[in-house]
Amino acid sequence: MAEVKKMNKDKVLFTKKCILVLFSLSLFFLLMFPDSVLAAGNVEINVNGDSMDTVEIILTLTLIALLPSLLIMTTCFTRIIIVLSFLRNALGLQQTPPNQVLIAIAIFLSLFIMSPVINEINETAYQPYQQEEISEAEFLSQAAVPLKEFMLKQTKKEDLELFVRLSDTEKVENAEELSMTVVTPAFMTSELKRAFIIGFLIYIPFLIIDMIVASTLMSMGMIMLPPVMISLPFKLLLFVLVDGWGLLFQTLFSSFNL
Questions:
Q1: Is residue 51 within a helix (H) or strand (E), and if so which, with residue range?
Q2: 3-class SS at 52?
Q3: Nearest 5°: CA angle at 191, between 163 and 193?
Q4: Run of H or E including 19
Q5: Cα–Cα distance for residue pair 54/131, rounded to 1 Å
Q6: Closest Cα partner for 161 from 134, 122, 131, 190?
Q7: pTM of the full structure
Q8: Which of 28, 47, 49, 84 suits 150 as a labelling partner, its CA being 20 to 30 A distant?
C-alpha cells in the first residue's frame, strides 16, 4: 500500500510539473509578441497567400483535434468495435486479439460498409470543392447530406424523438431537416443499443460452455481447478469450427440498413 501511495504521489507531482512547464511555455510565447499586437488581440498568419486570424486558427486546430471523435460518432465504427470487444470478453481472452488489431478491423470494416456514402460525398462535395466550384460552407452542407441519410437509416424512431424532445426542437415532417446536433446523439444511442444486443447474443453459447464445464468439474470433485482454464479451448474450438469470424462479419454487415 505504501508503494502504491508513493507511485500515486509521484504521478500527481509529475502532472503538476507538466502543467507548470506548459504554462511557462505559453507565457513565454505570449511575451514574444510586441505590445501593439497583444493590445490589438489579433494575430494574422498567411497560409497560401490568405490571411487567417487567431480565432480561425484556434477553430481549425480544434476541428483537427476533434476529427477522430467526430468520425467515431458519425460512422459505424462504434457498433463494430463494441461487438468485437464483447466477443473477446465472451471467449475469455484478455489481450488476444490486441486492441490495435480490433481497432484496425473496425476501421476497415467501417470503410467497407460506408464506401457508398464516401463515394457520394466525394462526387457531390469533395470533387466540386477541389475544382473550386463551391465554397467551404457549401462543401460542408453537401457533405453532410449523405452522411445524415446514413445515420437516419440506422437511428431508431424513439431515439430520434427523444432528442428532438430534449432539444425543444419543433417537429418536422422530414427527419432530414433536423440538425446534426440532434441526429448525432440519437444515432449514437441507437448504435449502442444494437451493439449491446449483438454482444448479448454472442455471450449465450460461450456462457453455456462455461456452465457445462463448471458443473462437470463440480460433479468430478475438481473444485480447485479453474473452469475458465478448461472451457477456453472448447470455446476456441467452437468458434473456429463454425467459422466465427465470417459469421460475425456477415452479421455486422447485414445489421446495417444500407
A1: strand 50-52
A2: strand
A3: 85
A4: helix 2-31
A5: 28
A6: 190
A7: 0.71
A8: 84
